Amino acid sequence: MRRSDPDGRPGTTPPVPGRPTSLFLLLGLPALLFALITWQVVSVGPLLDADAAVSRALVHPDRLSELLADLGNVPVAVPVLALALGYVTWRHRRIGTHHWWRPAVSAALLMALVPVLVVPLKLLTDRPGTPVVPPATGYYPSGHTATAAIAYGAATLLLLPWLTSAFARRALLTGCAALNLGVGFGLIRRGYHWPLDVLASWCLGTVLLVSLWLFLSRNTPAGTR
User: Fold this and answer.
1) How far apart are CA 49 and CA 62, in angstroms?
2) Three-class HEC string of the chain
3) pLDDT below 70 — which residues of the chain?
4) Which sign, positive or negative, has the C-alpha torsion 69, 70, 76, 78?
5) Could you give the CA distance from residue 40 to residue 127 in angstroms, rounded to a whole number?
6) How far is Cα 2 from Cα 14, in angstroms, rounded to an integer?
7) CA distance linking residue 141 with residue 113, whole number of Å
8) What is the number of other CB atoms lying within 10 angstroms of the CB of residue 42?
9) pTM of the full predicted structure?
10) Residue 4: phi, psi to the nearest 5?
């Protein structure tokens, strides 16, 4: 039996069981993995040997891999997010949500944060590209992967509360995962990025998207959750 709040309503004495563990798995583990990969890249650690071996096994430039990689381009991914921003803003205004602009603005700011985080990391790590691409540096982490993760992921988080059936929600989540996996595979297969470049951006994207999810869950009307 739950103990009552001071005003007599049933409540749960904080912390809520399982919450810290869930947050650690969703935020802590990706952040730790990102830090580990970044350390290996900067120090040219032994993990880069395995990274190169995986790259050699997977690289096979073809038209399909290039098309998949292009799904991470800004002109492709960002308009998808923009459509989702417009739709959810219209729905929130239609039902009279008090802060109708908040979900769209928060997702847009998260998208704008991607280059702010990724570009300095590219300059800091100064990692060269694979043998397939022309000699250059600044490949870590993958900007295309991060762009796709945030654009498609944020669009999914915005749209999920408005889907009324479990099938539609599962389909949306599956589509988002497939898009991001396709982008990552295309970048590695085409040789545009090392596997660790892509994995690191997925870790970074996970941290950002979980943060957005936590924010949206606290600022979404109960009727649309």
Assistant:
1) 25
2) CCCECCCCCECCCCCCCCHHHHHHHHHHHHHHHHHHHHHHHHHCCCHHHHHHHHHHHHCCCCHHHHHHHHCCCHHHHHHHHHHHHHHHHHHHHHHCCCCCCHHHHHHHHHHHHHHHHHHHHHHHHCCECCCCCCCCECCCCCHHHHHHHHHHHHHHHHHHHHCCCHHHHHHHHHHHHHHHHHHHHHHHHHCCCCHHHHHHHHHHHHHHHHHHHHHHHHCCCHHHC
3) 1-20, 219-225
4) positive
5) 11
6) 12
7) 14
8) 13
9) 0.87
10) -85, 150
Place of tokens 């802060």: 99
Question: Domain locations in the chain?
Answer: 29-224
Q: Which residues, at least 6 apart from 62, have a Cβ–Cβ distance to it below 8 Å?
A: 189, 190
pLDDT in tens, 14-66: 344 456 677 778 899 999 999 999 999 999 999 999 999 999 999 999 999 99
